[in-house]
Write a structure and sequence with these properties.
The protein is an alpha/beta fold and 494 residues long. Helices cover 30% and strands 24% of the residues.
Length: 494
C-alpha cells in the first residue's frame, strides 16, 4: 500500500524522503521488521523504539514514523508526528481498509463489569440474529474462532487486524472492552464507536507504570465519550459528571435513580438449591419508551448480586438501540454465562460453589459483600495471591477475607518466582488483623477438595483469584490448571 494512502488521516511532516513509496508491512517491534516495512518508533515505559533505527533500517525498513529526531540513510522516508502511538492507530486502520466502518462498534469502559457486560450484550444480540465479534480480557471471538487475550484492549494494529477479520467473517457488530490503559495509549484512536458505555469507576490502576492519580484515571476513561455517538452511562456513579466532562456524545443513563432513562425497580435476590440469581423490574423512558411495554418488564439474571443488575441494565440499554424484542432480551439474560466471573459450578444441592476472578482487595470485598446479602449458612472464601507483586495486596486480601468470610482457605495462586509458603505467610499477616477463621492448604487442588468435602448445607463457597485462567504460573512456566477440571476430578475421586 502507498504510504501517502496510509497517512491520509494523520497530521505529519515528511522530514526525509517521499510519501510516494510502497509499504509492505507495519511493525512496532524491531523483530518483526522485514524488507519494505514501516516501523513505528514507540516510546514505551521500558524501551524507546527510536533506539532501534539502525537495526530496523538494516533489516529493510523503508519508512520510519518518529516523534523525536533520528538519523537514517537518505533512501529511508522519515515521517514525524506528534505521537507515534496515535499515528499507529490511524495508519493501522488505513492499512486494513478501515474495517470498523463496516460494522457497529460498542466500547465498554469502567473499573468493574466490563467483561460480564460484553458477554451479556453479545448474548442478547446473537439471540436476535446478529453476528457479533468480541474483544476482551478473557478472549477474542471471531465467528467460531476464539483467541486467548493478552491485554484487555490490544495494541491498535492488533485491534484493526481483528476488525478486518471480523468484517470479513460477516460480523455486523463488535463489542469490546476499552481499558483506561488502552485509551491512554491511543490503542482505540480513530475507532468510530457507535456506543460507548461507562459502568462505574473507583481508584484502581494507579502507579508508576499506569496512572499518576485518580484524576488521570478518570480523564482517560472520559476520552471514550468524545469518541462515540451515544454514551450509555451509570446514573448512580458518584464520579459520573467528571467522566462526562467535555463529552460530545448523546447521553443516556441507566441505574436505580429517578433520572435514569432505563431504571431498575423492585430488586429481589433469588436463591434455589445450588443456585443464586437476581430479579428486578425494568422501566424505560426517553427514546426507548415506545420500544417496551408501558408497564415495563421483569428480568431475572442467573448471576448473583446488585452489580448484575447494573451489567444487565447496560446490556438492555445497548440492545434497545438494535431494536431487540423484550422477550429475546429476557431469554438471553437467563442464558448468559461468563467464564470466571461469579461462575457457578454445580457440585451439590446442599451448597453453592462458584469461581471468580477477584484477585485484589477491592474486587474481593465487593464479591464477598454481595454474597453475604444472600444470608448463607457460611461464606467460605478460598484464595491466594500472585507472586512477584505488591505485598500490600496480600495483607489487604487477607484482611478482607478475614472480615467478610466465615472461613478463609488460604492456598497458592500464581507463585511465579516466589515460594508459595512465603506468599501465604503474608496473607496470614492480613487475616491476623481480624478475628476470621482460616485454614492453610498450599496445594490448590487439595484446598478445593477440602472446601467441597467440608461444605455444609446453605454454604456459599467462592474460589477466588484464578477465574478464567487455565494455568498456574511457576518459575516462568505455565502449567495446566483449570479449576473446573480440578473440581470434576475431585468429584470423580481422582
Amino acid at each position: 500500500m502507498k504510504l501517502e494512502k496510509l497517512l491520509e488521516q494523520v497530521s505529519y511532516e515528511c522530514v526525509q524522503g517521499s510519501t510516494d513509496v510502497e509499504v509492505s508491512r507495519l511493525a512496532n517491534d524491531s523483530r518483526q521488521v522485514e524488507d519494505g516495512s514501516l516501523f513505528f518508533c514507540i516510546k514505551g515505559a521500558v524501551t524507546d523504539g527510536h533506539r532501534y533505527v539502525p537495526d530496523v533500517v538494516e533489516k529493510g525498513a523503508r519508512v520510519l514514523v518518529v516523534q523525536d529526531p533520528v538519523e537514517a540513510p537518505p533512501e529511508v522516508t522519515v515521517i514525524r508526528v506528534g505521537d507515534t502511538r496515535y499515528a499507529m492507530a490511524l495508519i493501522s486502520a488505513a492499512y486494513f481498509g478501515y474495517p470498523a466502518n463496516e460494522m457497529r462498534i460498542i466500547g465498554i469502559t469502567g473499573t468493574k463489569g466490563k467483561t460480564t457486560t460484553t458477554y451479556m450484550v453479545k448474548s442478547i444480540l446473537e439471540s436476535a440474529g446478529y453476528k457479533v465479534g468480541l474483544i476482551g480480557t478473557i478472549e477474542v471471538i471471531i465467528g467460531d474462532e476464539t483467541i486467548p487475550a493478552h491485554n484487555t484492549t490490544p495494541e491498535s494494529y492488533t485491534i484493526q487486524e481483528y476488525f478486518r477479520r471480523m468484517a470479513d467473517a460477516g460480523c455486523q457488530v463488535v463489542v469490546m472492552e476499552v481499558s483506561s490503559q488502552g485509551l491512554m495509549l491511543h490503542r482505540t484512536a480513530g475507532i468510530p464507536f457507535e456506543i460507548g458505555i461507562f459502568t462505574n469507576i473507583e481508584p484502581d490502576h494507579i502507579g508508576p507504570a499506569e496512572h499518576a492519580d485518580f484524576e488521570d484515571y478518570i480523564e482517560c476513561k472520559s476520552r471514550l465519550f468524545r469518541q462515540c455517538r451515544y454514551g450509555i452511562v451509570n446514573a448512580d456513579d458518584q464520579h459520573l459528571e467528571r467522566v462526562l466532562r467535555g463529552h460530545t456524545c448523546e447521553v443516556e443513563r441507566f441505574g436505580f435513580s429517578e433520572d435514569a432513562g432505563i431504571r431498575a425497580q423492585d430488586l429481589q435476590l433469588v436463591t434455589r438449591p445450588g443456585y443464586l440469581g437476581i430479579a428486578y423490574h425494568v422501566q424505560c423512558g426517553g427514546r426507548h419508551a415506545a420500544a417496551v411495554p408501558a408497564e415495563g418488564f421483569d428480568v431475572e439474571v442467573d448471576i448473583p448480586g446488585k452489580f448484575s443488575v447494573y451489567n444487565s441494565l447496560t446490556a438492555i440499554a445497548v440492545c434497545l438501540h438494535f431494536a431487540v424484542a423484550v422477550e429475546d432480551i429476557k431469554k438471553a439474560l437467563r442464558a448468559v454465562r461468563v467464564k470466571g466471573r461469579v461462575e457457578m459450578i454445580k457440585v451439590s444441592d446442599q451448597f453453592t460453589l462458584m469461581i471468580d476472578y477477584a484477585h485484589n482487595a477491592m474486587a474481593l470485598e465487593s464479591l464477598l459483600t454481595t454474597l453475604r446479602a444472600y444470608r448463607p449458612h457460611r461464606l467460605v472464601c478460598l484464595f491466594g495471591c500472585g507472586g512477584n507483586r505488591s505485598k500490600l495486596r496480600r495483607y489487604e486480601m487477607g484482611e478482607v477475607s478475614g472480615r467478610h468470610a466465615d472461613l478463609s482457605i488460604i492456598t497458592s495462586d500464581n507463585p511465579r518466582y516466589e515460594k508459595p509458603e512465603d506468599i501465604i505467610a503474608d496473607i496470614i499477616v492480613g487475616i491476623g488483623r481480624t478475628d476470621g477463621e482460616y485454614v492453610k492448604i498450599t496445594d490448590r487442588k487439595e484446598a478445593i477438595a477440602y472446601a467441597i468435602h467440608h461444605g455444609e448445607p446453605g454454604d456459599i463457597i467462592v474460589l477466588a483469584g484464578k477465574g478464567h485462567e487455565d494455568y498456574q504460573e511457576i518459575e516462568g512456566r505455565h502449567y495446566p490448571m483449570d479449576e473446573r477440571v480440578l473440581i470434576q476430578e475431585i468429584l470423580e475421586g481422582r
